[in-house]
Amino acid sequence: MPPYKTMSLHLRTERLLLRPWTESDAAGLRALHSERGKGTPTVEHTRSLIAKQLTATATTGIALLPVQRREEGDFIGYCGLTIGRSTVEEPEIAYELFRRAHGHGYATEAAEAVLDAARATGRTRLWATVGAWNTPSFRVLEKLGFERDRVSTEDSGEVVWLTRWLP
């Protein structure tokens, strides 16, 4: 493994808490995935996804973390770093929130905390990939200082690649 520090798995912002996955997150993650409009995954599948996330974190030292509102204590999505279409040296930032949580600045707030956590690991650049149709995600990434790099075509359509240097 490259000489990077392990990403902090406990991040706090003014309104949010990002923390490691637990089995109790399965119901929330399952509901979040069902909002994608491609059916509802089984409980077993969702638990398997959480187990894979925990294994990936132990292997790579980076993590996608559940996001919950501090005051309300409710699960509203996830945000963090992943290999995705990138590498452990230059991981991707990723986030997904329930529709009810859109428009409140939560994605930007969580992603800013993840940027700080990535910087603390010693990484110098991050990637993001976004479906060309996803205007709200482009706004979040623009606020965070990401810049377009290229566009690729996948089975799901055009994917825009963005990058951000971490000074």
In DSSP terms, counting alpha (H) and pi (I) runs of 4 or more, how many helices? 4
Rg (C-alpha, Å)? 15 Å
Task: Label the overall shape.
Answer: globular
Spatial arrangement of strands, main beta sheet: 1-2-3-4-5
Biggest sheet descriptor: 5 strands, antiparallel
Assign a percent range to the helix content. Answer: 25-40%
Mean pLDDT: 95
The residue ranges in which pLDDT falls below 50 over 5 or more consecutive positions are none
- The total beta strand count reads 8
- Separation, N- and C-terminal Cα atoms: 22 Å
| Percent of sequence in beta strands | 25-35%
Order of helices and strands: EEHHEEEHEHEE
The assigned structural class equals: alpha+beta
Keywords summarizing the entry:
globular; alpha+beta; 4 helices; five-stranded antiparallel sheet; 167 residues; 31% helix; three-stranded antiparallel sheet
Structure summary:
By secondary structure, the chain is α+β, with helices and mostly antiparallel strands. It has four helices and eight strands, in the order ββααβββαβαββ. Helix 1 packs across helix 2.
Structure, described:
With 167 residues, the protein is α+β, with helices and mostly antiparallel strands. Helices cover 31% and strands 29% of the residues. The chain is built from four helices and eight strands. The chain has helices at residues 26-34, 43-60, 106-120, 135-143; strands spanning 11-12, 16-18, 64-69, 75-82, 92-97, 125-131, 147-154, 157-165. The strands form two sheets. A five-stranded antiparallel β-sheet has the order 1-2-3-4-5, sandwiched between helices. Helix 1 packs across helix 2 (43-60). The chain is globular and about 35 Å long. The mean pLDDT is 95.
